[in-house]
Amino acid sequence: MKKIAVLTSGGDAPGMNAAIRAVVRYGIGVGMEVMGVERGLQGLLDDAFIPMNMRSVSDIIHRGGTILKTARCLEFKTEAGQQKAIENLRKNGVEGLIVIGGDGSFMGAKAMTDHGFPSIGIPGTIDNDLAYTDFTLGFDTACNTILDAINKIRDTMSSHERVSIIEVMGRNCGDLALYTGMCGGAEVIIVPEHNLTIDEIVDTLGGGQLHGKTSGIIVLAEGAGHADELKVELSKRTDMIIKTTRLGHIQRGGSPSCRDRFLGTCFGVHAVKLLEKGIGNRIVGIRDNKFYDMDIVEGCSMKKKFDLDLYNTAVIVSR
Ligand code: ADP
Ligand code: F6P
Predict the structure, then answer these.
(1) Is residue 35 within 8 Å of residue 41, measured between CB atoms?
(2) Spatial distance between the Cα atoms of 133 and 214, rounded to a whole number of angstroms
(3) How many Cβ atoms from other residues are within 10 Å of residue 2's Cβ?
(4) Which residue out of 12, 103, 127, 260 is catalytically annotated?
(5) Is 252 in the pocket of ligand 2 (CB under 6 A)?
(6) 11 CA distance to ligand 2 centroid (A)?
(7) Those residues with Cβ within 8 angstroms of residue 199's Cβ, 6 or more apart along the chain or in another chain
(8) Which helix (H) or strand (E) holds 164?
(9) pLDDT band at residue 210, thresholds of 50, 70 and 90?
(10) Catalytic site residue 127?
(11) Distance separating alpha carbons of residues 22 and 11, to the nearest angstrom
């Protein structure tokens, strides 16, 4: 392929810029022309193509968000929208597309491949909710941002001997809550994949008190409930003073961690190498510390398994 395009779609994630940089520099390095598409799949419909050069991606590896902007695009879900996107890609002489995004964006990339347009997906989402890859771009940075918040909240909770419910992102996937709950020393971790009753939560907090704990942290994934509602329920059954914090979009921003810059760079290069060989219809991932790619349809249909062993480990070490 002589000319490829790259875009970012869906929720942004720290490390997307590192991936864009790698696609542009590696692509140009092997003799390709690289176009950026602004505002994700919407940009394909709006003909928002911009030629990229080595300097277009200077000074971005350390920045959160995405220099190409991102968007959600309902029209892209229609046959007409997808045809228009392919028309614009062909009009610009583009032969292959790299989509950096989450499972929704991958459905978009799959639609392109279904129409015979070679597309590669790079997993970019803080949620870590894709089954075929151990880690997605942005997850590590988001975990570190959440941990920083937990540490700060813990200082004041322990000083005042209170319990804090910290609500973190994760619509369908509890990985952000699980990893940060475990590494932040939370007494209770609540995730959508593993049901906990109010009685079980109250018992855990009470058990902590019996063992001399005077404060506590509950990390709650948004997909499992809301902090303020949980506070109301818990307050009916315990006399501990409960405070809530919803971390919100602070979790999605910020300078990417070393790990996310590394993943972004390696995912980006891997994706271009596939297009270089004329291979489309793949998604790039990391499994057991090795970068790999798999069929887009197969990868998108895999169901993520919840790591119950890890959850149980977190429970045991939080007592
Ligand atoms: P993420 O990629 O972070 O999961 P979304 O779920 O919001 O984000 O999806 C991003 C975009 O992907 C959507 O706005 C839409 O343009 C496209 N998309 C999602 N599902 C499909 C689908 N089934 N077919 C085609 N495009 C889709
Ligand atoms: O990027 C994924 C995610 O962070 C979810 O965890 C969250 O529910 C959602 O995006 C919120 O995104 P937005 O505010 O852009 O709709």
Answers:
(1) no
(2) 39
(3) 10
(4) 127
(5) yes
(6) 6
(7) 237
(8) strand 163-168
(9) confident
(10) yes
(11) 20
> Using one digit for the tens of pLDDT, what is the confidence trace for 72-131?
999 999 999 999 999 999 999 999 999 999 999 999 999 999 999 999 999 999 999 999
102 lines ligand 1 (CB under 6 A): yes
* Distance, CA of 88 to CA of 111 (rounded, Å): 15
pTM of the model: 0.97
Cα 27 to its chain centre, rounded Å, is 24
Rounded CA Rg of the chain: 22
Helix, strand, or coil here: 237?
coil
Please state the atom number of ligand 1 nearest to the C-alpha of residue 82.
Answer: 25
- SS3 state at 289: coil
From the CA of 167, how far away is ligand 1's center (Å)?
25
One-character DSSP codes across 185-212 = T-SEEEBTTB---HHHHHHHHHHHHHTT
194's tokens = 């593993």
For residues 228 and 137, give the distance between their C-alpha atoms in angstroms, rounded to a whole number: 30
Residue 208's alpha-carbon distances to 152, 189, 215, 290, in angstroms, are 20, 14, 9, 40
Measured distance CA(96)–CA(276) in Å, rounded: 9
Is residue 152 classed exposed, middle or buried when 0-12, 13-18 and 19+ CB atoms within 10 A define those classes? exposed
For residue 72, give the ligand 1 atom closest to its CA. Answer: 14
Helices 103-114 and 79-91 cross at an angle (nearest 10°) of 70
* Sequence letter at residue 160: H
N-to-C CA span, the chain? 57
